[in-house]
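Posted in: Protein Modeling Q&A

I'm a second-year student putting together a small comparison for a lab meeting, and my supervisor asked me to include a predicted structure for Class I SAM-dependent methyltransferase. I've never done this before, so apologies if this is the wrong subforum. The sequence is pasted below exactly as I got it from our records. If anyone can share the structure token output, I'd also love a short note on what stands out.
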Amino acid sequence: MDIYNKFATLYDELMTDFDYENWFIYIKKILEKFNKNPHKVLEMACGTGNLSYYLAKEGYQLTCFDFSSDMLTIAYDKLYKFKNLKLLNQNMINFKINNVFDCIISICDSINYITDEKDLLDTFINVRNHLEEGGIFIFDINSYYKLKYIIGNNTFVEDREDVFYTWQNYFDEENNICEFYLTFFMNEDGENYIRFDEEHKERAYEINEVVELLTQAGFREIDFFEGFSFKKPYSKSERINFIAIK
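Accepted answer (user: helix_wrangler)
Welcome! Here is the predicted structure, written out as tokens:
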């Protein structure tokens, strides 16, 4: 079992503060607000399939992809019973699927992991090319404020029953990159712990930067809200949800 596979096995335990069912309900409210009733849905960076489960259960013709084959292995164990679902191993920036969709979704600040502005523009162009005319793109980001002032330059420690971890973060103001350094001690057999380390980076984007890139990519209608609401973001909003229509 390699390092990233170890992280994949812990992912769901570490994400217990995310309510995926309520996230799914919020997405349904977005679709209703924008008068969309999709049939074919694509979920980018689906991870271990937590949102995918609710999308598949709803009956959408669902395609999901993730860059991590280890995450997809766990997702498969949750989703293999659904006949209306397809899992793929692809990258957000250059994914290529021989289909177009009514709705494309990305959650859990996956977009922040695209740290190069040109790559993000390429991602948005690729998303638009995979949407039907009038199709809707729904995604969220960790806000600039959250990455710089809440997560950045802070250290977090958590001690759970089977895993202890430290999460050290540094914010690079020159490049607007938040670097995450995580060290895990995982209980293997009730007595012995193994250590492994993870490094991640997220780019802090201002709202106007994302809107400009979506505009360049050719989306004709763009809106944004504070996460899980339909209120406009304010200076200390931590999650921003975007809606873009082709």
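A couple of things worth pointing out for your meeting: The chain has a mean pLDDT of 93. The chain has two domains: 3-142+205-245, 146-203.
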